[in-house]
Amino acid sequence: LIDPIIYDEAATLIEEHHTAGRDVVIVSTSGAEVVEPIGELLGADRVVATRMVVGDDGCFTGEIEYYAYGPTKAEAVRALAVSEGYDLSRCYAYSDSVTDVPMLESVGHPHAVNPDRALRREATLREWPILVFNRPVRLKQRLPAFSMPPRPALVAAAAVGAAAVTAGLVWYASRRRTAGAALPG
Fold first, then answer.
1. pLDDT of 137-163, one tens digit each?
2. Which of 22, 44, 114, 140 would bridge 39 by S-S if both were Cys, CB 3.0 to 4.6 A apart?
3. Which pTM does this prediction carry?
4. Does domain 5-53+62-175 match CATH 3.40.50.1000?
């Protein structure tokens, strides 16, 4: 059985956001086929990811339907805020790449996590918190309560996505506008 690797610090943040009543949304440039199973394992409430076109024959065509990258991530976050009633000034975003500055700018609590050089400079200039995650752990070991998805989904997630998770997924969490509102799902 293949078990993705995550940062222990990321799992702790996800738990803290859920405990505070916030939704957790993973926003990733990686493909939805990879990110969705990992998001399910992490207990994410939503996933925003790159979507590929699937032809009538059920096979990928090689075309991209939606590319979650740079400004399009910020647009997706704003659209999700409107549809779910999130107050972006109370939202959190975490990223390791300068390409996510538009998304980080769109929330009230941006964080750089294991940032690339350009994002580290930007975060320092803007006085955004810089977090260092350095405790990789197997997801099943860290979050044993999560059930593992069917083997094909797990293999796909591990084979293509383990590096992305290890490098640090971009995720975003927000307190619901109304107290006690049900989590989307």
1. 888 777 655 444 443 333 333 333 333
2. 44
3. 0.77
4. yes
